[in-house]
């Protein structure tokens, strides 16, 4: 029997070579794509029957996502008959999450919830998703004596380190992100756990509102109503905006985060003077490297002549939604979660993130010689990208065998 105190974290080490080798074949069988690998080897281009598909140089699964999935599969491999729970979606991709559920891993949140945290007991196994989890939830599970399979992404933990330092120094964390997103909630909790404060800003308009308040003051009641649900308990804009440090949800657009930082720094410089701004403002680049790689690759793809762009991924995936935003600014862009959304060459169902629902578009795929660009978020597996490529060519009457033989 364990003599450890219930509050002692109990992490399970599954990253032993023998375990990871055993699950690798299973993971590859679910998510690998020979077709995508062949297209990559062919310069990320495939053409047949007047249709050319160009893949962004970087797309799909990142290291953090692969690690999270590997650890979830490994947990089931090592504990084949024991109940395993997960705090939320392992990543923001419906097909991957369906696969996790199919392995009998029970969800503790969301529409597919199978149990509550209160139902868990000592030695139960709990997977922490790649986004991390809130400090209070982790502490509650530790107090119960649960064992953790922690798949939290290293880039997310780097942000946590930064906001904890802000809190230690009595600097308020201004987090550029979505206040309702699991990652941002987890990051926010890291500040309050150290007795600090935070404010989440999502848009540049919200950033400008904060800057205006810093410079001119205003109604505290109006401020708190505007940002309801996006600040720490006890947050007072008159007090807690005097020293601020910018951090971000790791999957935001780099250019937008940099603009948030620039505007806030300018406001603090105007208020306190250039010689004192360092006492009142801090910034650290916490954009995920994989997120940036995919944004940079799409930016390059958008410079070449293409007729339309397909963005593949979960509709609640932040990094995928930003790829769709980039495409929409340049050309017709369709954000789809899988190939089935391409009903025909006349009808496609795709996600409109501005209204938060799927919409139908007619006559979306032009006839004649066209080039279609494709990218995918960091949580999208290659098999779904393959399905999309195959479906595109099928809509032009080109068989899978012809496609596999295409040069």
From TrEMBL:
<feature type="binding site">
    <location>
        <position position="181"/>
    </location>
    <ligand>
        <name>dimethylallyl diphosphate</name>
    </ligand>
</feature>
<comment type="function">
    <text>Catalyzes the conversion of 1-hydroxy-2-methyl-2-(E)-butenyl 4-diphosphate (HMBPP) into a mixture of isopentenyl diphosphate (IPP) and dimethylallyl diphosphate (DMAPP). Acts in the terminal step of the DOXP/MEP pathway for isoprenoid precursor biosynthesis.</text>
</comment>
<feature type="binding site">
    <location>
        <position position="318"/>
    </location>
    <ligand>
        <name>dimethylallyl diphosphate</name>
    </ligand>
</feature>
<comment type="similarity">
    <text>Belongs to the IspH family.</text>
</comment>
<feature type="binding site">
    <location>
        <position position="153"/>
    </location>
    <ligand>
        <name>[4Fe-4S] cluster</name>
    </ligand>
</feature>
<feature type="active site" description="Proton donor">
    <location>
        <position position="183"/>
    </location>
</feature>
<dbReference type="GO" id="GO:0019288">
    <property type="term" value="P:isopentenyl diphosphate biosynthetic process, methylerythritol 4-phosphate pathway"/>
</dbReference>
<feature type="binding site">
    <location>
        <position position="181"/>
    </location>
    <ligand>
        <name>(2E)-4-hydroxy-3-methylbut-2-enyl diphosphate</name>
    </ligand>
</feature>
<feature type="binding site">
    <location>
        <position position="318"/>
    </location>
    <ligand>
        <name>isopentenyl diphosphate</name>
    </ligand>
</feature>
<dbReference type="GO" id="GO:0051745">
    <property type="term" value="F:4-hydroxy-3-methylbut-2-enyl diphosphate reductase activity"/>
</dbReference>
<feature type="binding site">
    <location>
        <position position="317"/>
    </location>
    <ligand>
        <name>dimethylallyl diphosphate</name>
    </ligand>
</feature>
<feature type="binding site">
    <location>
        <position position="288"/>
    </location>
    <ligand>
        <name>[4Fe-4S] cluster</name>
    </ligand>
</feature>
<protein>
    <recommendedName>
        <fullName>4-hydroxy-3-methylbut-2-enyl diphosphate reductase</fullName>
        <ecNumber>1.17.7.4</ecNumber>
    </recommendedName>
</protein>
<dbReference type="InterPro" id="IPR003451">
    <property type="entry name" value="LytB/IspH"/>
</dbReference>
<feature type="binding site">
    <location>
        <position position="92"/>
    </location>
    <ligand>
        <name>isopentenyl diphosphate</name>
    </ligand>
</feature>
<keyword id="KW-0560">Oxidoreductase</keyword>
<feature type="binding site">
    <location>
        <position position="379"/>
    </location>
    <ligand>
        <name>dimethylallyl diphosphate</name>
    </ligand>
</feature>
<keyword id="KW-0411">Iron-sulfur</keyword>
<feature type="binding site">
    <location>
        <position position="317"/>
    </location>
    <ligand>
        <name>(2E)-4-hydroxy-3-methylbut-2-enyl diphosphate</name>
    </ligand>
</feature>
<feature type="binding site">
    <location>
        <position position="92"/>
    </location>
    <ligand>
        <name>(2E)-4-hydroxy-3-methylbut-2-enyl diphosphate</name>
    </ligand>
</feature>
<feature type="binding site">
    <location>
        <position position="62"/>
    </location>
    <ligand>
        <name>[4Fe-4S] cluster</name>
    </ligand>
</feature>
<feature type="binding site">
    <location>
        <position position="379"/>
    </location>
    <ligand>
        <name>(2E)-4-hydroxy-3-methylbut-2-enyl diphosphate</name>
    </ligand>
</feature>
<feature type="binding site">
    <location>
        <position position="92"/>
    </location>
    <ligand>
        <name>dimethylallyl diphosphate</name>
    </ligand>
</feature>
<feature type="binding site">
    <location>
        <position position="379"/>
    </location>
    <ligand>
        <name>isopentenyl diphosphate</name>
    </ligand>
</feature>
<dbReference type="GO" id="GO:0046872">
    <property type="term" value="F:metal ion binding"/>
</dbReference>
<keyword id="KW-0408">Iron</keyword>
<dbReference type="GO" id="GO:0016114">
    <property type="term" value="P:terpenoid biosynthetic process"/>
</dbReference>
<keyword id="KW-0414">Isoprene biosynthesis</keyword>
<feature type="binding site">
    <location>
        <position position="319"/>
    </location>
    <ligand>
        <name>(2E)-4-hydroxy-3-methylbut-2-enyl diphosphate</name>
    </ligand>
</feature>
<feature type="binding site">
    <location>
        <position position="317"/>
    </location>
    <ligand>
        <name>isopentenyl diphosphate</name>
    </ligand>
</feature>
<keyword id="KW-0479">Metal-binding</keyword>
<feature type="binding site">
    <location>
        <position position="319"/>
    </location>
    <ligand>
        <name>isopentenyl diphosphate</name>
    </ligand>
</feature>
<dbReference type="GO" id="GO:0051539">
    <property type="term" value="F:4 iron, 4 sulfur cluster binding"/>
</dbReference>
<comment type="pathway">
    <text>Isoprenoid biosynthesis; dimethylallyl diphosphate biosynthesis; dimethylallyl diphosphate from (2E)-4-hydroxy-3-methylbutenyl diphosphate: step 1/1.</text>
</comment>
<feature type="binding site">
    <location>
        <position position="181"/>
    </location>
    <ligand>
        <name>isopentenyl diphosphate</name>
    </ligand>
</feature>
<keyword id="KW-0004">4Fe-4S</keyword>
<feature type="binding site">
    <location>
        <position position="318"/>
    </location>
    <ligand>
        <name>(2E)-4-hydroxy-3-methylbut-2-enyl diphosphate</name>
    </ligand>
</feature>
<comment type="pathway">
    <text>Isoprenoid biosynthesis; isopentenyl diphosphate biosynthesis via DXP pathway; isopentenyl diphosphate from 1-deoxy-D-xylulose 5-phosphate: step 6/6.</text>
</comment>
<dbReference type="Pfam" id="PF02401">
    <property type="entry name" value="LYTB"/>
</dbReference>
<feature type="binding site">
    <location>
        <position position="319"/>
    </location>
    <ligand>
        <name>dimethylallyl diphosphate</name>
    </ligand>
</feature>
<feature type="binding site">
    <location>
        <position position="250"/>
    </location>
    <ligand>
        <name>(2E)-4-hydroxy-3-methylbut-2-enyl diphosphate</name>
    </ligand>
</feature>
<dbReference type="GO" id="GO:0050992">
    <property type="term" value="P:dimethylallyl diphosphate biosynthetic process"/>
</dbReference>
């Amino acid at each position: 029997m364990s003599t450890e105190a219930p509050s002692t974290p109990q992490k399970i080490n599954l990253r032993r070579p023998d375990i990871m080798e055993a699950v690798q074949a299973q993971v590859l069988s679910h998510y690998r794509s020979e077709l995508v690998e062949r297209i990559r080897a062919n310069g990320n281009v495939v053409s047949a029957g007047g249709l050319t598909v160009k893949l962004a140089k970087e797309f799909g699964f990142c290291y953090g996502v692969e690690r999270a999935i590997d650890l979830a599969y490994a947990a089931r491999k090592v504990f084949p008959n024991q109940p395993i729970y997960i705090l939320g979606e392992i990543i923001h991709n419906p097909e991957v999450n369906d696969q996790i559920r199919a392995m009998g891993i029970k969800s503790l949140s969301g529409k597919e919830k199978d149990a509550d945290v209160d139902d868990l007991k000592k030695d139960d196994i709990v997977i922490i998703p790649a986004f991390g989890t809130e400090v209070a939830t982790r502490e509650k599970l530790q107090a119960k004596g649960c064992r953790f399979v922690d798949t939290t992404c290293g880039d997310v933990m780097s942000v946590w380190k930064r906001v904890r330092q802000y809190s230690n120094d009595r600097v308020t964390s201004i987090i550029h992100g979505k206040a309702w997103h699991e990652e941002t909630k987890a990051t926010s909790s890291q500040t309050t756990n150290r007795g600090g404060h935070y404010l989440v800003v999502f848009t540049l308009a919200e950033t400008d509102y904060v800057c205006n308040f810093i410079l001119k003051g205003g109604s505290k009641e109006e401020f708190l109503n505007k940002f309801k649900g996006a600040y720490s308990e006890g947050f007072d804009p008159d007090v807690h905006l005097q020293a601020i440090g910018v951090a971000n949800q790791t999957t935001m657009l780099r250019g937008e985060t940099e603009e948030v930082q620039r505007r806030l720094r300018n406001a603090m410089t105007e208020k306190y003077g250039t010689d004192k701004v360092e006492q009142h403002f801090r910034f650290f680049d916490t954009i995920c490297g994989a997120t940036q790689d995919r944004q940079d690759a799409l930016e390059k793809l958008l410079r070449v002549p293409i007729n339309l762009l397909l963005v593949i991924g979960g509709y609640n995936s932040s990094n995928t939604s930003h790829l769709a935003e980039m495409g929409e600014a340049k050309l017709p862009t369709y954000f789809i979660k899988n190939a089935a959304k391409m009903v025909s060459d006349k009808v496609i169902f795709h996600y409109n993130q501005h209204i938060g629902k799927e919409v139908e578009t007619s006559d979306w795929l032009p006839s004649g010689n066209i080039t279609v660009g494709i990218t995918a978020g960091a949580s999208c597996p290659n098999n779904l990208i393959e399905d999309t490529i195959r479906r595109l060519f099928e809509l032009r009457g080109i068989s899978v065998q012809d496609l596999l033989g295409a040069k």
